[in-house]
Every structure is written in C-alpha cells, then in structure tokens.
C-alpha cells in the first residue's frame, strides 16, 4: 500500500487539487498517513469516481470547447479582487467549483477554479496549471483560461503554452497507472491578478461497472471563499447522498427529468493541521454519493472481477504445495509467507488493470503483482490445499466507521484474503512483508471492516483477530554493562527479542540494509547515551525458529564512562528502548486524537557488573515506581548487590489513541513518567596502587628539577 504521509505544504496540496484531476487513492495519500500495506487499485478521480462505458484512447490528447450547457453558472464571492480574505502562502482561493453530470451517455466532471496571488509565493504557484487524466478511458476538454487585471478580463487560453507529458508520480511506490498531464504555462502574470480556468474530464474506467459513486471534500487545509459541489442525476436512477459531518446540508432541485444535488459553502476556514492523527480517522469533512443500494450490489460487482481466483495454480507451484506437511493452518501460513517473500509487489494500475486481477499463472510466472494479483494467487493456492478462501476488500485508512458509510467500491483501497479453519476465520495479507511463524502469530493491521467477496454477502464483516497477539508486539531488551577495573570503560552487550509486529518491522528494516549500515544505525542509537562508544562486533540478527520472533545481539566498548558531578562520577542507566517507543506530537492543543502504538509491551533490563565490591555506590531517593493510567502502565524496580545493580523497566501501551479532550491528562502522565526513565549510580573513584603513587612522585620530582 501507499505511503500516506502528509505533505508539509498545505497550500501546495490544495494547488495540486485545483490544478489537476486526482484519484481517490491519491486523495487518501494526501490526507492521511499509513504504516504498512499495498494499494488495491487506482480509483479514478478525487472529485468523482465514475464507471461509464469508455472508448480507449490510443494516445494522449486534449480538446478545446466552451463550457457545457448542463453546468450551473456561479458568481464569484463579493469583493472580487480586493484581497480581503486570508491568503495561504500568498494565494487567495476565491472559488472551488466541481460539478458532475451523471445523466449523459458518458459521465462528465466539470471543474472551475479561481485564485488570486497576493505575494510572490502565490504567483509562483499559479503560473503553471496542471490537468491530469487517463487517456485510456478519459477525454480532457479545456474550456477557458482568463486573467482579470484592474477590472479588465483577458483571454489567456490562446496564448498559453500547453504541453502534454506522461508523469508517473507513484512509481516510487511500485505503482504504474499511465496518467498524463496537460501543463498550461501562463505568461505575464502579476501579483493581484485574478486567474480563472475551467475544464471537463469525460469518461471513466469501464471496469467500475454501470453504477456511479464518489466523494468530495467539504473543507481543506486552506481557506476558500466559496466551495460549490453539484451532482446532476436522472430521477430514474436513485442517488444516495450523505455528508460526514452531519451538519452540511445537501440541497436538491428538480430540473425536468433530472435532479440537481448541491452544497454551497461560503468562507470555508482552513482546517488546522495536526501531526499524529490516527490512520482510521479523517479530519476532513466530506460529501459522499453512490448509486449502489446496498453492500450486496457492491459484492456482486467485485465478485465478477475475481473469477481468476477459481483458476488452478501453476503446476510447479502446485508440486511445492503438495510437499507441505503439517496441519491445514501450518500449510496456509507457509503458502502465505511464500507469496509474501517470492512475489514482489508491483502494480500496473492502467485501465481495467486498476481493479481486474491477473491470473495465478501470470502472477507466478512474472514473480510480481499488486495486492489483488497476490490475493488471487494465494486463494488459488489455498483452494489447492483444500481450504476455501475468498478475497476481502478493506480500507487501509479511515476505516473505523466504514460500516456507517454509503455502499460503493470507492470505500476500499486494498484487498486481503480470508478463510475459515476449525471454526475460526483467519485474515491474511499476501502483500505484507517479513511475516513468520504460525497463522495466529502473524500480525493483522487494524482494517476493522471487510467486504468478503463471494457474490452473496449483504453486509460488511468485522475483522477480529484469531489471537490477541496478532494485534500486539513485545520487545524484550537485556543490556549488560561490565565495568573494567578502572571503572572508566566497559564492555556493553545488548540482546533484544522482537515479537509480533515489532519483529516484522525489524525484519523489514534489516532486509533493505547491509550489515554495516544496520550496525552503524544501532551504534548511533546508543551514542546518544554513551558518546564514546565503539563497535566490538557487527550486529547479529537471527530468527527464533517457528515463531514470529527475532533475536538481535550487539556488542560495544564504552569509554569515558559517566559524568563528573561534584567531583564524583555519575553513571545514568536510561530506559533507551522504552524512550524509543514513546512519542509526542508537535501539536499539543489538539482537535483530533493522537495516535498511540496500541498493544505494545517493552521490557528493558539494564545490568551493571563491577569487578570489586564497593565499585558501585547508590543514590538515595530513587525508589521503585509504578504508573497506571488509561493509556499506559509503567514500572521500575531495582535489584542491588555489592558488585551488581539491575534496573528493570516495563512499559505497556494500552490504547491506540488519546482523545483530544484528554490529551492534557496524557501530557501530565508523560511528565510524571519522564524522571523514572533514568536510574543513576555513583562509580567509586579510581584507586591508586603503591607502585602508581611511587611513579607519580618520581615524575613530579623530575619535572621540578627540570624547571630549576
């Protein structure tokens, strides 16, 4: 699945929407982050996802034509050109106008944008206009480009330099969609000009069937003076419309045999960006619409696409499957992990390939595929093993309340595999990487809801793990610091065990790096606590056989130990692994929840071993500590002996998020935790032997004679 990190430049993000037709998948990428997964398909556009018949286009081209008659004309906000509204990055956004015609022989999406640069930054952004489309099934029709300067409007379409080029923005995510861009380079633009342009994209991906659906944002991360969204639909075809905020009112007007649905929003304020928002939540209100009556209709549509799942597995793969031994669950885990490891992820999302999976033979032979291809191959393998399996459509983001949304294929961006064994329903993701162990040990991301594709299901299915460990992780760290006789240097050995999704994350990290890089990264981690640290041996990573668990061993030399404090040497034993799994957002005054790790346990045991009794001295006031709250549990206790001290830290994350109204309490809990994440001891001063005292006296006498 795609990396869904938020762009830093919010105005740049809005501009990319104003200046191009984007896919639903790209919209999710822009708005929300995501940890791991693969994209199911390229949903056709941001402002509409259409499914009418479309004739293939042999090459990318565009047309010039007037605005269509079905479009509702709109006036600009009052005060045009006076620059009264707030401007983000020097750009005033006067109008976002998107209207969709569902009543023609082909679906049409009309866009009109009006913006005014007030500073140099805004002028730079608006000087080129990018219009994206997929020529395999879409036509691009440019209507007009104009500039208003000092109250006089001038046409700029004829003088614009228009370039067509193919731009694959998602190749770095292993997705190829064959999208093209028409770029209009505008000449002689000045600060204060009002730039207006409009265009239509006609047609849609035929693989999406004969029903229409989509989603429109009702607010953005920048201020917009007027947002208008219109839908023109035939009365003979029911259209279901819903707004996510429950506040924005959708109006409708009868126009003969048609109905026009619309929302008209004035002075839309910029939504404040916050980091750390959970993936399952969208802070952006939206309007959604669909011609699907229920989930069973969506199920029927999807079932027609996955006929290839009934194809037999390739002969060579079938022989490998037949050699598997063990229980059906063991065989299912082995087949899943083989596909994860040997079929690399790459998606060809061009045309019908955006949704139509390849056959098991094709995916096996070429050794690559996207989530739908890998799912079909896995289903064929499981059925070969006598296990009845089905595709399951899921959403990798914004999925917590998926069951409350309108039914449509646009609600999903990923597909996984589901099957039942011994009365238990399993969910596995063949596009996941670095999984190991039994089925119940393989992690399961929080997809929450799925549409099991069997052509019959009438509702979504709640995704429940077979075992709690599928949603949890454990990190156990043993740190042993063995002091030299001088108590100024030591050997430092670390043995860590990663279990569950933490093991999968570590495998994925190490799998893309050589040993030297991994060793240096780990050394730099501890250098924050021990600046004079040196590598003694390379990092060693080994599998714990038969379990979803990794063992990591590190070994270092520490020099210049401790800190001078009042003439004494103070050694601080920090819970480094606990600290590494606790984060705080930049936005402390929050409107949205803050994401937490979920079910994660970190056990860290730090032992210091001295050569002699009395080498270690204790500080008073460092008592055992226990902290309990709704978000985490923490404890620290200390074991002491004359030549050894062991500090046991335990951190248990309990939840997936902190509600915004309780974030202040969470910060207080972290403040209370902070001083307990370090335990300090004194290292006894280095003793001087008689021979050392005699040598020092001789050296001092020699220096005095030389000076004399």
Automatic annotation (TrEMBL):
Transmembrane segments: none annotated. Pfam families: DUF3857, Transglut_core. InterPro entries: DUF3857, Papain-like_cys_pep_sf, Transglutaminase-like. Residues 107-270 form the DUF3857 domain. Residues 327-394 form the Transglutaminase-like domain. It comes from the Bacteria. This is DUF3857 domain-containing protein.
